[in-house]
Sequence to fold (1180 residues):
Amino acid sequence: MSSFRVSGRGRVDHTQPIQFTFDGKKIKGFKGDTVASALLANGIHLMGRSFKYHRPRGAVTAGSEEPNALVGTRRGPGRFEPNTRATVQEIWDGLQVNSQNRYPSLSFDIGAINDKAYMLFSAGFYYKTFMWPKSFWDKVYEPFIRAAAGLGVSPTEPDPDHYASRYLHTDVLIIGAGPAGLAAAVSAARAGSRVTLVDENPEAGGSLLSEPSAMIEDMPAWDWVAKTLAELKELGVKVMTRTTAIGYYHQNMVGLCEKLTDHLASPDGETPRERMWRVRAKQVVLAQGALEKPLVFDGNDRPGVMLAGSAQTYLNRYGVRVGNKAVIVTSHDSAWYAAFDLADAGTTIAAIMDTRAEPNGDLVAEATKRGIRIMAGHTVTGTEGRLRIKSVRVNPITGSSVGAAEVIGCDCLLMSGGWTPSLHLFSHTKGTLKWDEERQTFLPDHKAEECEIAGAGRGLWGIEAVLNDGAEMGAAAVKSLGKTSKAASYAVANDRPGTGVSHKELPTDLDAGKARAFVDYQNDVTAKDLRLAVREGMRSIEHVKRYTTNGMATDQGKMSNINGLNIASDALGVPQPKVGLTTFRPPYTPTTFGAFCGYHKGSHFEVTRKTPIDSWAEENGAAYEPVSLWRRAWYFPKDGEDMHAAVSRECRATRASVGIFDASTLGKIEVVGPDAVEFMNRMYTNPWTKLAPGRARYGLLLGDDGFIRDDGVIGRLADDRFHVTTTTGGAARVLNMMEDYLQTEWPDLDVWLTSTTEQWATIALNGPNARKVLEPFVEGLDMSDEAFPHMSVAECRVGGFPARLFRISFTGEVGFEVNVPAHAGRALWEMLFEAGKKYDICPYGTETMHVLRAEKGYIIVGQDTDGTVTPHDAGLSWAIGKMKPDFVGKRGLARPDLVAEGRKQLIGLLTEDGKTKLEEGAQIVLDPNQPKPMKMVGHVTSSYHSDAAGRPIAMALLEDGFNRMGETIYIPMPDRVIKATVTGTVFFDPEGARLKL
Amino acid sequence: MTVLTHAFTPGPIVASGPVKLTLMAPVARFSLRLRAANIPAVSKAIGVDLATTVGARAANGTTETICLGPDEWLIIAKPDDTETLVKACADVYASATHSLTEVSAREVTVRIEGERAAELLTIGCPRDIDTIPVGGGCRTVIDGVTVVLWRDAEQSFRMDIWRSFALHVIDLLCTGCKEFAAE
Fold:
């Protein structure tokens, strides 16, 4: 093993070696390593190239906030993920890792030419440079920029993994299983609450995993973590690791993404890759901790430059020294401890530079004891080294002047600019923040949700302080639930409390305008870019952010926001809170589309509703079309017929003898009660009082505005019982509208509504022989024209099943609709089909239904109407009960614009050549020679080839259409202009003779 | 695992593992709507004291009811009892108006039982299953589809699903069963 791995150290399993590949090269690590820790153990810091300048980059952190070390990971075909953070991805035998955004190789990348030309690529460069000519943007500039800059490549193969989701209800959800979260969980669980504790890492413990020397309750930190987890398990706490709280939504709903298989060498295939949890928590405790800030100086992005706390984590959690010779530069006490741990593990600490003139005396003594050179009041002004840092340039600061430089050799530079409380989830809730002048950071202020913030997340520092705060906040959370809990008090020995100061970019004796001092590593934004944005007039941090893209990368500014704010505030000469903080938005870390989709993919993508007769259609070769959530038989092609041929045949067969059609999807609502007829009078335009039981009527439903909303045939079964049908797509909407009126406007009416759409299978028989096919199966009903005329309904038995039989027609032929209980639908269909064979019965689909009704001028709501069509516009004035005192839409119909002359009205169109079929949706003009843009006066709503009419027919909405009968209008198409004549909408059997038996 | 079709043949769907799914035999099912004043009269007619708390159930022999809303109940009965029930309600209609609408064929019912039955529901149901008492129930949604859930025992549920949505919902439950079995 390499000299960077410290034998026996860390939480990795030194007895379980694991081999993976990085850019094809075999790399060895241990179980428990991340890609980054394993590479660092092998002395590899160079892990990627930056987004814009293609600068060599290494891991700068050890966690999910990593901006630099983004890699592609692969597990066989289809299982490729770009932009995986090397600091998070656990290794397993055979894992394939590849670096990104480099060509031809990571160590030699042609794109790095951008870096030499960096003066060109400052903030706003694209806007200024690629502005003109405008037409070049889409085709030249944008593709070029996108190809040159970027991260990983999108996967191209379908994702073979599956994803899951769950709902979870819990009393207290604790986010973050570090010291604060663990202590909060103990408090809440001891009070007997349902507690859920989540952490994005593979194991709980948080910062305690990087602080093994701390003693909590006289126990080494790691033993205390183990003991606490055992107690939590005993108390029934649900502890979820590898689980990121990605978003905090209204009313304490928190989204969690749990990774289940990405760390496994051979997942079983049934286990989902990820699971999205939608959690409703009565109380939430945010214990997300704090993220370390980089310092901003020239060359602060070179591989080997890393956050000091992360170096401490690599050492203590993974047993990896990040270098042999380290220089520390810090403005916070915490980095001193990282230096001590590394020194004790064998890394030479060349110097600790503290930007503060007088660092803590105890730390100075500890450093001196270890023989470490201390450089108080120093700044860093540059680094050297092509693919890895080899030296750092440092200068003393005296007052406001920067002294002479000294160059110190090193193979890593560990920095700390202090710690930023992690406020992302709190920010999702729209909780307000206040600026803490002393700590130079934003802290939570007013809460918008039922939550507590504990520990370093609200600016506390030191294990003891954080543990005790966690305990208090856990107790506070359960107290809000009416339970009592006494917060435990924790004593910690070997604690490492500390303080620090916050900086803008560090002072330099060189030209600050040439400094490559990075603020946002992932988007390659430098301090200079931020100052330029301010010079160019950006005042709000929101504008500075968008102009420079600072904080807009996939890490959402976890490391760059406060540094960016400090610099913008300095450039503007106003305090930070006046410049503002940008809003964090979900998800907290990049989340796969798969996790969001969950189970909804492939055949389970969306509900496909099928009728009881659908299986017969499938067995008989139906082509389908989707109608709202239903799939409906569209037509039944025979022997290689295309749709046109099949529909022609179905139309002819139905008009010649008999056709059979599955109408089960029609919405059905049972309206029952003494006030049923009054309710119907108020809802529908038609009069219902005089409709006798056993009779049916076409009903038209308007909205308040007077426009057509729905229609359907309605049968009166008894004085107080109606069988209402609606359009297929309108079923739920109509029921909701009716319930709305009933509950809010007319609660006095004694009437109730029940959806019976799925109670009944509905079979329509149409054609001159329809009665002959049906009659032998009907019991208890005289089907003669006198006893059961057109527009009748009866309860009887058909084929031995209880039935509601309608004599109605949507084809212009003699027609019946038989409703039988859904489970009997297919059996009855088969009986009728069998019996109909001697009449050449023809099953037909929705397309033929559309043609047959269009030949008769019957409208389809939603096709011939579009929410702006009145009954008069549609030629349905006859359906309005003019004597009725009121109905929904009556007042709307009296509006001046609805009674105005010249509205768009539904008319028929016949193309002049008698052969051309118009295109549905095509626009109509009166004069095809007028200059463009032409005045469009209407559009085609329905258009079909009609066998019955022997020519194509169409319906259209046309301005003043009723007054244009016989006129010629024009339909301009891309290749020609079509002439058509305005006609009525009935193209076949205008006298309705065929409806008679 | 049995592949269920739209024929909805009763029988086991998932017969082993931590949760079992069974498609139940058809029952007679009615939607009952009425005002509070008429509850005693209609209760007497159907022989069950209708519960007035939403989610509460009341039964008499094989006739079961669940209160789904302030004026809404679902009645489940043996198919053979349909005529008696309809007649009993019709007899009191004049003095205790109400709506009794048969919806026997509207839904199919699946039994969900086994050591992790309650947990299985959490893959699609946003409600807190813990708050549904044994002997209670509710109208809720699973995977976006409205269902009526009956909790018969700690780990035994009936779920009434509208026919055309049933295969979608049962497909999800089957996926969940596989997921559980893999753990």
Notes: Residues 122 and 128 of chain B are 8 Å apart (CA to CA). Chain B touches chain A through 47 residues (CB under 8 Å). The two ends of chain B are 17 Å apart (CA to CA).
